[in-house]
Write a structure and sequence with these properties.
Shape: globular
Structural class: alpha+beta
CATH architecture of the largest domain: Roll
Number of helices: 8
Helix content: 10-25%
Number of domains: 2
Strand order of the largest sheet: 4-3-2-1-7-6-5-9-8
Number of strands: 16
Length: 348
C-alpha cells in the first residue's frame, strides 16, 4: 500500500509537458490520479504482483536501434523494472492500423480502450547509467543494443530525482557480491594508463550498476569543437562555454494549419562571442562495450551558428513554461533563429 506522500508525489509528476503532443492513450494515463494511477500500473503494466511503483516521470526517449526517432514516454520506475509507456506513433503498424489509431478517428476518441506500447527494462539487466552534460539527459544501458535507452529530460532536477530514486530501488536488489579486487602495486596501477586522457567519473553502486558522470575533459573537447567552428579564434584558453542546453528549434510547417509549428531537437551552445545550434547524438556515445565499430555520425554536428555582435534583438513570448525565444540577427535578412528555452537557465 503506497503512502499518502508517494500518491501525492506521483500525481504531481503525472503531467505531460505542454509543448509536446501525445496520443490519446498517454493523455488517458496523464489524467489518472493517486490510487487510480497505482491501480492502472498494477492492472496493466506491472509484471510481478508484489512490485511497488516508486517514481513516475514524463520524458522524451531515444532507443539505440532508432537513434533518429525521439518519442514521448511515461517512465515508470518500480522495485523490479523500468517501464517506458510509449506514444502510439512509435508502434510500427501498417497503414490501415495507423489510420485506425489516429487521434482524429472518432471511434477511438469516444472509446474507453486505447492502444499503447510498453518497453520493459528489468533492473537485474541494468549495467550502467551515463549522465549527460549538466544533467540534461541520461542513458540507461542493459546487456544488448535492444536495452539502451536515453531519457532526454532537458531538466537537471528531473534527471537528479530519477537517478536518486533509481539508486534507492537498486539498493533493494539481492545480487551476489563482486569478487575481491586483486591487489596491485604502484606501477601496475598507474603505469598502464598512458593515454593521457582521464577516465569519466564512475560510481559503482552496491548493486554493481555503474553510474558514469562526465568530467572536465568533455567540456574541453566540446570547447575545442566549438573553437573549430568559430572564425578567427586563435586562443582556445579564452573560449568559455557560457550555456549548454537541450532545446527545440521551432520551424513553421508549410501547407498546414495556421500557427502550426514543428519542434526540432537541438543542442544550444552559447559562448561570449557566438551562438551555436548542434545536432547531437545522445544515444551512441560513449560507445557500448558490445559496439564493434564507431557510430556513423559524429557526436556533434553543426546545424547553425551566428555571431553575438550580429544579434539585433531577442523577442520573448508570454506563454507559460517553457518559454519561447526568438533571436533576430541582422546578418541574414528575413531569417530568424528561434529557440524554446526554459527560464531557469538564466541567472536571477
Amino acid at each position: 500500500y503506497p503512502s499518502e506522500f508517494l500518491l501525492q508525489k506521483i500525481t504531481e509528476d503525472n503531467q505531460i509537458p505542454v509543448h509536446l503532443h501525445v496520443s490519446v492513450s498517454l493523455q488517458y494515463v496523464a489524467g489518472l490520479k493517486e490510487n487510480a494511477l497505482v491501480e492502472f500500473f498494477h492492472g496493466n503494466i506491472a509484471e510481478v504482483e508484489n512490485e511497488e511503483l516508486r517514481h513516475l516521470m514524463w520524458s522524451s526517449v531515444l532507443f539505440y536501434k532508432t537513434p533518429n526517432v525521439e518519442v514521448m514516454a511515461c517512465v515508470l520506475l518500480s522495485t523490479k523494472a523500468i517501464y517506458f509507456l510509449l506514444d502510439d506513433s512509435f508502434i510500427r503498424a501498417d497503414e490501415h492500423q495507423s489510420d485506425f489509431w489516429n487521434k482524429e478517428n472518432s471511434g477511438c476518441e469516444n472509446s474507453s480502450f486505447h492502444l499503447s506500447c510498453c518497453f520493459v527494462l528489468k533492473l537485474n539487466d541494468l549495467q550502467s547509467v551515463n549522465v549527460g552534460l549538466f544533467d540534461q539527459y541520461f542513458r540507461i544501458t542493459g546487456h544488448s543494443a535492444d536495452h539502451i535507452v536515453t531519457c532526454l529530460t532537458r531538466d537537471s532536477y528531473n534527471t537528479h530525482t530519477f537517478i536518486q530514486q533509481l539508486m534507492a530501488v537498486l539498493s533493494l536488489l539481492a545480487r551476489t557480491p563482486s569478487p575481491e579486487p586483486v591487489d596491485k602495486d604502484f606501477y601496475s596501477e598507474f603505469g598502464s594508463k598512458n593515454t593521457g586522457k582521464m577516465e569519466n567519473y564512475e560510481l559503482i553502486h552496491s548493486s554493481r550498476v555503474k553510474f558514469i558522470y562526465p568530467n572536465e575533459e568533455e567540456i574541453g573537447d566540446l570547447a575545442f569543437l566549438v573553437a573549430e567552428k568559430m572564425d578567427g579564434l586563435t586562443n582556445l584558453q579564452s573560449l568559455n562555454i557560457l550555456l549548454y542546453v537541450l532545446a527545440f528549434q521551432v520551424n513553421h510547417v508549410t501547407g498546414s494549419a495556421p500557427n502550426t509549428n514543428s519542434l526540432q531537437p537541438k543542442t544550444l551552445i552559447l559562448t561570449s562571442s557566438d551562438l551555436f545550434l548542434f545536432d547531437e547524438d545522445y544515444i551512441s556515445y560513449p560507445l557500448p562495450d558490445f559496439a564493434k565499430e564507431p557510430p556513423k555520425r559524429d557526436k556533434y554536428q553543426l546545424a547553425d551558428g551566428r555571431r553575438i555582435r550580429d544579434l539585433d534583438r531577442v523577442l520573448m513570448g508570454y506563454q507559460t513554461y517553457p518559454q519561447a525565444l526568438t533571436f533576430v540577427f541582422d546578418d541574414v535578412q528575413n531569417q530568424d533563429l528561434m529557440q524554446n528555452l526554459t527560464l531557469d537557465h538564466f541567472g536571477k
